[in-house]
Write a structure and sequence with these properties.
single chain; about 190 residues; alpha+beta; Alpha-Beta Plaits; SH3 type barrels; 2 domains; 5-stranded antiparallel sheet; 4-stranded antiparallel sheet
């Protein structure tokens, strides 16, 4: 089991006070470019639990080819800590840290534990996965590769097929084209 999974199991011998005071959450930390591993090492040195999902890719040099670990989400890592100003400050004072991601200014947003657990299980049990942009039907999208590169439209899902819908508002008409999700990016 990963090191973070063990911290979620609580003994029934804990008092109610200690269970309530141990309200650690996962947060997303944005770091300087190419500093994910540096920040992770520093946080671990400070006894702060981290989770940095990685993928292995081949890197080609002129004289050799080597399998290298790269962050799954470049520029980000997950931090498990108590949601209090002292802990936030301790994390943000780490070399390479930029900010904790938040949906409202000044209040870092916790990541649901289920999402972290699912990601950990996936990372521990498979290396065959694809990364997709987070898209919802109705989102504005752009096709990022292929002959339709640069087209912008609205995402529509029809019979398990992704479509890019282009609206010509003045005519009251729309045109749709089937596309692969890995050819898309959110706007």
């Amino acid at each position: 089991m990963g090191k973070g999974l063990n911290t979620l199991v609580q003994s029934s011998s804990h008092s109610i006070h200690s269970v309530l005071s141990d309200k650690s959450d996962w947060f997303v930390l944005f770091v300087r470019s190419k500093h994910e591993f540096v920040v992770e090492r520093e946080l671990l040195r400070k006894n702060i639990e981290t989770f940095l999902p990685t993928v292995q890719k081949f890197r080609q040099w002129t004289d050799r080819k080597k399998l290298i670990n790269f962050p799954l989400f470049p520029g980000y890592l997950f931090v498990h800590m108590n949601p209090c100003p002292e802990e936030f400050t301790k994390v943000l004072k780490t070399t390479g840290s930029v900010k904790l991601i938040s949906s409202e200014i000044g209040n870092p947003t916790p990541v649901p534990t289920e999402e972290i657990l699912s990601l950990k299980i996936l990372m521990e049990n498979t290396r065959d996965f694809d990364i997709y942009p987070y898209l919802r039907e109705g989102s504005r999208i752009r096709i990022k590769k292929g002959p339709l590169k640069g087209i912008e439209g609205i995402l529509k899902i029809k019979e398990s097929q992704y479509m890019c819908i282009i609206n010509i508002e003045i005519l009251g008409r729309s045109i749709g084209v089937k596309i692969y999700v890995d050819d898309l990016e959110a706007l």
